[in-house]
Write a structure and sequence with these properties.
By secondary structure, the chain is of the alpha/beta class. About 40% of the residues lie in helices and about 15% in strands. It is built from 19 helices and 17 strands.
């Protein structure tokens, strides 16, 4: 891997080796602008969003400047959330994997503090933490930052939004001497400018061009559709496009719960992550999402800070975000590690004005996308089954089945008719075009009946297959179908008794 442009930054050979192993070819704009002045010891404020490589922008010089022979804490990095602290720690460990003697320890709430104390006492040059737990250690005397030479605040604007301003200033009060202060922030509001003026020494200001923010590997779409059918749109898109793992972003905590319930009713494994969850609940949800046990994770912006899960196929903006920075952060959850990604933003009416403003600020025009019809979904399912059929045909061993088909053909059916009948039986039949335009009808639990099907997970049945079968054969609109539960050997589905 050619990393000659990194070599020009006068980095340690071990770090250059790590960057090569990690697939870095050249520094991003924020990295090339920030690394030299940080290495020179200057205070710096980097205005950069998620997806610009800001962690490496401060992580590389931090790892370059720490002294491995000195076991005291030399650099303190503060993050607004536990997830971001874990993410930053992981990135530093990868960048410094070939550096001997340098230890990075994360400190955050939700983890036994004694474990952190033990790790700090073993000797750690770099501490990555959240403000609350960091102050806890400082007050206990289990963390000594009197010898630090570098203090980094990552996503400083989010710290302010989460009420950490006093914590930031309290942490600064524990420092002694003329230490280097570094802040990265998507925006630089007045409170941050005040901190800069009070605590920083002629900071260098670096701002990344917004046009460089959004990744070229993310296809960005907008769908004009009213809010009442957006969960149905997500369901159809998941089926038609074949997405396996998705994130749904919304602006409020209350919406996360209702959206997740609607998606669950359509048979998707869906859970939420918002500010009301305890740390243990957040950990459990994120573990399931990373392991692919959740199809769709519904999240608010602040709660999703630091989510770094590879393999996210698509990000849905259930509504236009309040701020362009939120939009950039949201879509940055897909298209990672060299993979292609997709973002789909739902908008309608006056909200389109806000979307136009976002497009102008990020320098990208979102492509219009039409909502898939029920027929699109069914055709997609047919194509999937045809692919599986081709695999079965290529595998051979079909003689007993051929004999049976030939016997049935003698009864008056043609071979194509028999094949079509078997395919229809497997899929559930093609709905008549236009059914998806029917008026939505709401049913309560007392109006629903539960059906049991003798097909389940081991038969590779998906929620969409069940919806298609019922909608096609029983003439029941997809929106009217209730909760779907797929077990190993069977499936349960609630349908309106009136239909």
């Amino acid at each position: 891997m050619n990393i000659s442009t990194f070599e020009g930054l006068q980095l340690r050979p071990e770090i250059l080796r790590s960057l090569s192993d990690m697939g870095f070819e050249a520094p991003t704009s924020i990295q090339s602008s920030c690394i030299p002045p940080i290495l020179e010891g200057k205070d710096i404020v980097g205005q950069a969003q998620t997806g610009t490589g800001k962690t490496a922008a401060f992580g590389i010089p931090v790892l370059t400047k720490v002294n491995a022979d000195d076991r005291s804490v030399q650099a303190l990095i503060q993050c607004p959330t536990r997830e971001l602290a874990i993410q930053v720690t992981g990135e530093l460990l990868k960048i410094g994997q070939f550096l001997k003697g340098i230890q990075v320890v994360p400190v955050y709430g939700g983890q036994p503090i004694q474990r952190q104390i033990t790790a700090i006492n073993r000797g750690a040059q770099i501490i990555v933490g959240t403000p609350g737990r960091t102050i806890d250690h400082l007050k206990r005397g289990t963390l000594d930052i009197s010898k630090i030479t570098m203090l980094v605040f990552d996503e400083a604007d989010e710290m302010l939004n989460m009420g950490f301003r006093e914590d930031m200033e309290e942490i600064l009060s524990y420092t002694t001497g003329d230490i280097q202060k570094i802040m990265f922030s998507a925006t630089v509001p007045a409170p941050i400018r005040k901190i800069m003026k009070t605590y920083m020494n002629e900071p260098v200001n670096v701002q990344v061009d917004r046009k460089a923010v959004t990744a070229p590997d993310i296809e960005q779409y907008v769908m004009d559709v009213r809010e009442s059918v957006r969960t149905e749109a997500i369901s159809r898109l998941m089926d038609v496009k074949g997405y396996n793992l998705g994130l749904v972003f919304t602006n409020t905590k209350r919406q996360t719960e209702s959206i997740a319930r609607d998606l669950q009713a359509r048979g998707f494994s869906s859970e939420i992550i918002n500010g009301d969850l305890s740390q243990g609940q957040r950990d459990a949800v994120m573990s399931k999402f990373r392991n692919g046990k959740i199809d769709l994770l519904v999240a608010t912006d602040v709660a999703a800070r630091g989510i770094d899960v590879s393999g996210v196929d698509v990000v849905f903006n259930f509504e236009v975000p309040q701020d362009p920075e939120y939009y950039v952060h949201r879509i940055g959850r897909t298209g990672r590690a060299g993979r292609k990604g997709t973002s789909i933003t739902f908008s309608a009416g006056r909200k389109n004005r806000r979307l136009k403003s976002i497009e102008k600020q990020i320098g990208v025009t979102l492509k219009p996308l039409a909502m898939p019809t029920v027929e699109d979904v069914q055709i997609s399912r047919i194509n999937i089954h045809i692919e599986k059929l081709e695999e079965v045909l290529n595998a051979g061993g079909l003689k007993p089945y051929i004999n049976e088909i030939e016997r049935m053909a003698e009864g008056g059916f043609t071979i194509p008719e028999l094949a079509a009948g078997l395919l229809k039986l497997q899929i559930g039949g093609l709905e008549n075009p236009g059914k998806d335009e029917k008026e939505n009808v709401k049913f309560d639990d007392s109006q629903m009946v539960r059906l049991k099907f003798s097909l389940g997970k081991k038969h590779k049945i998906r929620p969409g297959d069940i919806v298609g079968a019922i909608a096609g054969e029983a003439n029941i609109p997809g929106d009217a179908i209730g909760a779907i539960t797929i077990k190993q050997d069977f499936s349960l589905v609630d349908v309106p008794s009136a239909l």
